[in-house]
Amino acid sequence: MNYLEFEKPLAEIEGKAEELRAMARKTEGMDVEKEAAALDRKAGELLRDLYRNLDPWRKCQVARHPERPHASAYISALFTEYTPLAGDRNFSDDHAVMGGLARFNDQPVVVIGHEKGSDTKTRIHHNFGMARPEGYRKAVRLMDMADRFRLPVITLIDTAGAYPGKGAEERGQSEAIARSTQKCLEIGVPLVSVIIGEGGSGGAVAFAAANRVLMLEHSIYSVISPEGCASILWKDAEKMREAATALRLTAQDLLKLGVIDEIIKEPLGGAQRDVDGVIASVGAAIAAVLKDLDGRKPAELIRDRRQKFLDMGSKGLAA
Amino acid sequence: MNWISNYVRPKINSLFSRREVPENLWTKCPECGTMLFHRELADNLNVCSNCDHHMAITPRERFQALFDGGIFTEVKVPEPIVDPLHFRDQKKYTDRMKATQKATGEKDAMLVAEGQIGRTPIVTAAQDFSFMGGSMGMYVGNAIIAGAERAVKKKAPFVLFSASGGARMQEGILSLMQMPRTTVAVQMLKEARLPYIVVLTHPTTGGVTASYAMLGDVQIAEPNALICFAGPRVIEQTIREKLPEGFQRAEYLLDHGMLDRVTHRKNMRDELITILRMLMRETPAVKADLPSPGKAESTVATAATPPATTAAKA
To answer: C or N: which end of chain B has fewer Cβ atoms within 10 Å?
Structure first.
């Protein structure tokens, strides 16, 4: 188990309980179960307390937790016959974006997601989930295909942002993002986005101009990272706590602002503590939205999606 | 009173309080250091006469030079909710806004106008870099939507001059949401088959480049304008190497296939007229003296007659 900084006291208690049990296993006739159970209870209470009111900066840490399930975990658990489709037909295949055909509850769909990777090797392979223009162009190609064959599109958002690299800029990072957002707004099929971790700026919105945007309880969605905002507006990158609060990047605030449509509850202690549970919740939420959007005409889907964005923000926090 | 105050002091005063030349009469070119007289600089559309460096120009100044006879009508922009997030960094966002509004005399970072250029009716929007770095918040989004709607209603092309540091952080996620919102505006123009021309000026970066500023039918940039998604400093920090000369500048983007043209500010108006009239399948522009402003106004009023006939009459 990987503990976040604010979870240190929890790590200590859980560590002690584990130590006790390990000792008991080695020493015959030693009964520590009572003490260990007491420690477990204490840990449980602490966990509840810690997660009851996570402040925005702590939420950022949970959203970026290394053991938080990523797009690949959701795809392999929720979809069958997943058939990855690669490449932008122009330059290369971007491994930060995965996507292809798949079945969701037997219904054929197109699924697209940012993949961050889970260890050093896969993180480098997936470029830490930071897409280059080819990733967005691949997504545009897949969304186009979904539109032509009338397949719903599901996007899983989890990126710190688009990759700020030399080649990415030379090959038109901004144009690629703009076209991807445009494609989202153009397709005559249901488009459902789930922000499963980090929704980082333009790199996230390029996949999230959707009919419905769902968000996990402890995920974040923001115009800039709290660190970046702090260094620009506070001239001090250490003010990320203040920036995280001011930016209102939590699912709870975004629901109030009318930017997202629904919050999906996470297990106590965050998605990383019950991966199967959280994946099942996300699956149920997607199924409900697809059912709701089923049977709508292409023109209606496009019109509703556009109107939703045109109206967005008109009511501020009272939305 | 005495000889000192009557005689010496005036002399000393005249030495020290000599009327100074107001500083804003002269502008130093940030590129070549040439001192430029304000009237000449304005006549030259804020382009350095020595090195051709394109300095910032306010939307109003640009429109005065762009429209026939300098005549244009502002398009009303629906005002968004003020400070939606109750944002506060070292200063309150509302205080920052008030100070900037006072300093610039503008409501926000974009001005939308309609009128004629070369007797071609257009709607245009220009971003104001002097207003909080031209940052894109809800007002800018509303301005682009209002401009596009007006263009569709008038069946006129839409020309957009971009200049922005990106999204306005003080409006948080709602500034990010202007990316899809403005994209919807571009789609309205596309569906109405109306030309959408983007003129990228220095600098155009971040979420602005990654939405409406890169979706034009024709993409023109002013010389040496910085145009990018991530700024050069961020990239240098990420890849830890020096970037090549001219990286992310207009000419570099032109070489990499990201732009149609790089055009000097003094030629921009003629070029826009030429392109727009072809895309609108109008006759070539008449290259002759324009009628006096009084007459120009009457042609605006009778804009129902096709520009070619109006030109013949004039």
So the answer is: N
CB A76 within 8 A of CB A279: no
Residue of B nearest to A303 (CA): B184
Angle, helices A133-148/A173-186, rounded to nearest 10 degrees: 20
| Residue A200: closest CA among A258, A268, A261, A249 | A249
Report the 10 Å Cβ neighbour count for A135: 35
Interface test with A, best of B176, B218, B240 (most A CBs within 10 A): B176
Percent helix / strand / coil, chain B, rounded to 5? 45, 20, 40
* B88 in contact with chain A, both atoms CB, cutoff 8 A: yes
**Cβ-contact A225, A160 below 8 angstroms:** yes
Contact B177 A175 (CB under 8 A): no
Q: Is the pLDDT of residue B16 over 70?
A: no
Å from A99 to nearest chain B CA?
Answer: 22
In whole angstroms, what is the distance from residue A237 CA to residue B251 CA?
Answer: 34
Q: Are B183 and A170 within 8 A, CB to CB?
A: no
> Chain A contact for B85, CB < 8 A?
yes
Sign of the CA dihedral running A207, A213, A218, A223: positive
Residues of A with CB below 8 A from B214's CB? 172, 174-175, 178-179
| pLDDT value for A101 | 98
ipTM confidence? 0.93
Closest-CA residue to A191 (of A150, A137, A134, A132): A150
Average pLDDT of every residue of chain A: 93
Share in percent of chain A as helix, strand, coil (round to 5): 55, 15, 30
Q: How far apart are CA B21 and CA B38, in angstroms?
A: 12
pLDDT value of residue B21: 53
Sheet holding B110-117, edge to edge: B72-74, B110-117, B120-127, B158-164, B196-204, B218-221, B261-262
The Cα of B55 is separated from the nearest Cα of chain A by a number of Å equal to 24
Which chain A residue has the Cα nearest residue B256?
Answer: A170
Q: Which residues contact A155 (CB under 8 A, 6 or more apart)?
A: A111, A112, A113, A139, A191, A192, A193, A194, A207, A208, A210
